[in-house]
Inverse folding.
């Protein structure tokens, strides 16, 4: 077929339209859910501040991905329903921007397991002093997530073109549609993510074993050390769900993605792109994880999860502070009068 005929097939494909509409609806739903999750993690003292920073970076990554995805699908659907043939060919620079946000958010979200494993490892090995550790360490780990994401994207975009290439037709907003890289340019970084997720899961499991083992040996342990280890055990239990979901989703996404890329030559172009968007169910993952985490953590008291520091357990809210202040300001003779009334 000619380029215009292929583009007509793209715009009229039932499965591609259905895939884009379904993913667009899910993406729109994900925004209020993710923003609520971000507010919840930021306002509730459920983990150490450094742990919260890693989770907030993860939620931010999901929001960035959803933003790129919203632009990608909405522009394509408007284009498909209003144009046909070569008139429906996507704009190169529009694709570069929205697909860039799409890929950046997904890459950043995949790196959260690594930073959480490092943060919990440091909390374990420096258990006697970690409660006094400030947020600078958490910020450094957040920057590490960014660095790892950019390393992933560097390989992904290494052979891509950042300007339109003559005699190359862009049918869909792909990363390498205008480039000259091989299929391994996409698949190699995905295999690295697969291996990394498995390693992080094993290390996180071992951290739980080590923490429980250290906590059981109470010899020469200070109160602060025992507190940190106990809260570490509870934090690892609470984060297990998060690590498991992150590992499964990005391992599955990488495994199915590489399989799809290797078999793309056996599919029609619209079918291939429809499946690409279906398997990248990152907004769905964000919605389900946020809802599950909210209702799971809501059933547990903060002290059972692992609050961030010793001093947070003794913080008073505004109402408590007001009541305490009034009690301190009462004339001491009042207590004597009340006492006499009670014994008379």
């Amino acid at each position: 077929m000619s380029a215009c005929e292929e583009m007509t097939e793209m715009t009229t494909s039932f499965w591609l339209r259905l895939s884009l509409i379904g993913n667009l609806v899910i993406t729109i739903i994900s925004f209020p859910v993710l923003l609520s999750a971000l507010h919840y993690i930021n306002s509730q003292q459920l983990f150490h501040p450094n742990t919260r920073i890693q989770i907030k970076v993860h939620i931010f990554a999901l929001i960035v991905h959803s933003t790129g995805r919203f632009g990608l699908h909405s522009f394509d659907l408007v284009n498909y329903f209003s144009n046909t043939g070569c008139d429906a060919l996507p704009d190169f620079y529009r694709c570069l921007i929205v697909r860039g946000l799409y890929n950046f958010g997904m890459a950043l979200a995949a790196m959260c397991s690594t930073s959480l494993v490092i943060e919990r490892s440091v909390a374990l090995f420096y258990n006697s002093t970690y409660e006094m550790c400030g947020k600078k360490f958490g910020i450094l780990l957040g920057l590490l997530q960014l660095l790892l994401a950019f390393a992933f994207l560097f390989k992904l975009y290494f052979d891509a073109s950042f300007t339109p290439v003559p005699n190359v037709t862009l049918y869909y907003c792909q990363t390498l549609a205008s480039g000259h890289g091989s299929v391994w340019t996409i698949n190699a970084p995905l295999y690295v993510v697969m291996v990394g997720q498995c390693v992080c899961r094993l290390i996180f499991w071992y951290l739980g074993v080590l923490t429980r083992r250290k906590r059981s040996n109470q010899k020469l342990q200070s109160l602060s050390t025992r507190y940190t280890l106990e809260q570490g055990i509870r934090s690892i239990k609470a984060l297990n769900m998060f690590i498991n979901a992150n590992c499964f989703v990005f391992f599955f996404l990488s495994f199915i993605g590489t399989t799809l890329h290797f078999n793309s030559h056996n599919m029609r172009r619209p079918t291939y792109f429809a499946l690409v968007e279906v398997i990248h169910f990152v907004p769905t993952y964000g919605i389900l994880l946020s809802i599950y985490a909210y209702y799971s953590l809501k059933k547990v008291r903060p002290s059972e999860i692992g609050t961030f520091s010793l001093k947070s357990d003794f913080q008073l809210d505004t109402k408590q502070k007001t009541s305490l202040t009034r009690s301190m300001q009462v004339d001491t003779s009042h207590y004597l009068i009340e006492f006499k009334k009670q014994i008379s």
